[in-house]
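Below is how a single chain appears once it has passed through the pipeline. First comes the sequence as given, then the structure the pipeline wrote out for it. We keep one example in the README because the format questions we get most often are answered faster by looking than by reading.
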Amino acid sequence: MGYKVAVVGATGNVGREVLKTMAERNFPADEVVALASSRSVGTEISYGEDKTIKAQDLATFDFTGTDIVLSSPGAKVSAEFSPKAAAAGAVVIDNTSQFRMDPDVPLVVPEVNPEALEGWRKKGIIANPNCSTIQMVAALKPLHEAAGIKRVVVSTYQSVSGGGKEAMDELFNQTRAIYVNDPIVKEKFPKQIAFNVIPHIDVFMDDGSTKEEWKMVVETKKILDPKIKVSATCVRVPVFIGHAESINLEFDREISADEAREILKNAPGVTVFDHRQDEGYVTPEECAGEDAVYVSRIREDSTIDNGLNIWVVSDNLRKGAALNTVQIAEELIKRDLLG
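Resulting structure:
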């Protein structure tokens, strides 16, 4: 059986990646509709190697008869249209921050908590977690099952693609401007991003954390375990695609680097590449276009009891967004939860 699938925000970075991922994975769709804002109506978007589809107007689209909606239009747009699509009978897999902490909306990484999908009918919406959270919990889940994680201290190195096409353009334009001695124009970022790092993603909260850091804390607790303590520092770096994370872990029981390495080698969606030599680790540039969550630099932390350090890298547009969204839809079909 094939499904009617609507991709909302189809002309954006994530929307295009969703369509690409669906085609690569031969998603069972009889009909695929691309939806975008009125200014993008008629834009042709690639779907597979030899097919394009034209964007239709989200504002006037009738979701009746649509089975699955894969939505990445931004939180404000999603707040309006995801409930409309759900009310029309579709299951909405929402890639924005709008519904993630709603207690009636499952927040899902298929390799980590697929059982949460059972609750999707409460609102007809399933939330896709934040990109930095997805790759972290994919690596943490098997370690938590083995030794019980008490505390996580994570510093992220997040690429500009997490801020959308305009952010990528700003990095490119600023880099070029530096080489030709033109003025640096700042529009998307509060400070120069070219040849710089910015410890500020999203808005500041009352406690001094940024909202990106808050997301990592609360989403990890919702997905993995509410008892885990999480401290996050999120940093934007001058990389186009791929997020990296330096993660310090404290466990309930002793776990060696060798044991952790073997556990992670058998974890779904995780690839261990950990050699203590030059080039024996994965960087964002190398993970771009890849589906896996890569783990490197696995080593014991002698400054605390039962401590480990790991380095985690993943393509934030793939596993951090589009791939995870499509995998959720595949898991719904596999578990026969759409009927």
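The two ends are 12 Å apart (CA to CA).

See the next section for the split statistics.
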